[in-house]
């Protein structure tokens, strides 16, 4: 498709969002694919206006109305057979939304609770300040689409929360190998990604965290060693989560690094990090964008912010453990 547009549907469902992904997103994409109406899709989970799944479908402008009709019909059938029976009230939403907005440092957000079991078509506005414009944004959106297809597959497969956490750990480790094959650098880069996210790094020194790490050390080390071995010519299994994830990020990263070297990467993600860590960071902005892609993958898999931070800490601790530091 040379010319394209995005149809953006917010699928409000205050219950199990996995059910929305399997019961609405997956069949919508399949039906649109059979009809030749889709050139990719991506989705996210979000809280604004009430818990919902944001589905973005890439299509031709002249086909947008037909795409909306398919989404509406599929969602209506899902809501009829699997309605959410949440008791979320306007007051409850107002309280939770204020806290979540503060966490994300949002000053402007939707204060209205949308009806449960409903669809709203709300325009997709790309985060160009984070991901850039032009070729950079196109590369990132392509990664979003490939990652969303992978996430739907994992969710539909019935991966448990624990299995999804290990999937995410493998993908986080794989991200690091995109930028370095040197283990100490990988460890410092993992530390940077933790410390640029705020105060979570303090947990690395806690006794509770160390006990958890010791109890799971063997599995964590094996997971990181498997991914890191790929930097030394040991191929990952084609069907592995890490291998599939790397396929989604390598092309995006190559484009971002090329644009950075040409001075054409107009993206400025926020970050903080100690000077001794920054000296180990090459291609800083592409790394931050690729890590933001990982953050969004955690969102797609239903991994909370707290769980994501914990996994990043575990990756950092495991990498330094392998280094013998």
Could you walk me through the main structural features you see in this protein, from its secondary elements to its overall organization?
This protein is of the alpha+beta class and 325 residues long. The chain folds into two domains: 5-125, Alpha-Beta Plaits, CATH 3.30.70; 130-323, no CATH class. The chain has twelve helices and four strands, in the order βαββααβααααααααα. The protein has helices at residues 17-34, 64-81, 90-103, 128-131, 134-156, 161-179, 183-195, 207-229, 241-261, 275-278, 284-300, 305-323, and strands at 5-12, 41-46, 52-59, 118-121. It has a four-stranded antiparallel β-sheet. The longest helix has 23 residues, at 134-156. The termini are far apart. The model has no long low-confidence stretch (mean pLDDT 91).
Tell me the layout of helices and strands.
Elements (H helix, E strand, L loop, with lengths): L4 E8 L4 H18 L6 E6 L5 E8 L4 H18 L8 H14 L14 E4 L6 H4 L2 H23 L4 H19 L3 H13 L11 H23 L11 H21 L13 H4 L5 H17 L4 H19 L2
Antiparallel strand pairs: 1-3, 1-4, 2-3
Helix pairs in contact: 1-2, 5-9, 5-11, 6-8, 6-9, 6-11, 6-12, 7-12, 8-12, 9-11
Key phrases:
325 residues; alpha+beta; Alpha-Beta Plaits; 2 domains; four-stranded antiparallel sheet; 12 helices
Brief description of this entry?
With 325 residues, the protein is of the alpha+beta class. The chain has helices at 17-34, 64-81, 90-103, 128-131, 134-156, 161-179, 183-195, 207-229, 241-261, 275-278, 284-300, 305-323; strands at residues 5-12, 41-46, 52-59, 118-121. Strands 2-3-1-4 form a 4-stranded antiparallel sheet.
């Amino acid at each position: 498709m040379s010319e394209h547009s995005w149809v953006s549907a917010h699928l409000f469902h205050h219950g199990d969002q996995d059910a929305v992904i399997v019961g609405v997103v997956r069949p919508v994409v399949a039906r649109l694919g059979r009809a030749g109406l889709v050139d990719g899709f991506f989705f996210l989970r979000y809280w604004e206006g009430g818990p919902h799944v944001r589905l973005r479908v890439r299509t031709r402008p002249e086909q947008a109305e037909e795409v909306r009709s398919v989404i509406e019909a599929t969602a209506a059938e899902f809501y009829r057979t699997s309605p959410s029976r949440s008791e979320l009230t306007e007051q409850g939403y107002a309280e939770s939304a204020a806290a979540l907005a503060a966490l994300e440092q949002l000053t402007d957000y939707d204060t209205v609770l949308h009806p449960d079991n409903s669809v709203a078509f709300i325009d997709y506005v790309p985060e160009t300040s984070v991901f850039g414009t032009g070729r950079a944004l196109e590369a990132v959106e392509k990664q979003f689409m490939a990652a969303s297809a992978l996430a739907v597959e994992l969710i539909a497969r019935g991966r448990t929360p624990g299995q999804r956490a290990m999937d995410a750990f493998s993908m986080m480790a794989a991200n690091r190998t995109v930028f370095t094959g040197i283990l100490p650098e990988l460890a410092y880069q993992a530390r940077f990604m933790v410390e640029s996210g705020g105060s979570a790094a303090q947990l690395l020194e806690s006794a509770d965290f160390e006990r958890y790490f010791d109890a799971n050390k063997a599995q964590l080390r094996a997971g990181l060693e498997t991914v890191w071995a790929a930097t030394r010519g040991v191929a990952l299994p084609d069907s592995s989560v890490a291998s599939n994830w790397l396929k989604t990020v390598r092309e995006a990263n190559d484009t971002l690094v090329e644009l950075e070297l040409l001075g054409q990467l107009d993206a400025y993600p926020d970050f903080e990090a100690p000077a001794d860590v920054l000296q180990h960071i090459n291609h800083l902005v592409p790394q931050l964008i690729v890590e933001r892609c990982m953050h969004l993958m955690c969102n797609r898999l239903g991994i909370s912010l707290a769980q994501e931070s914990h996994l990043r800490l575990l990756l950092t601790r495991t990498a330094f453990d392998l280094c013998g530091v």
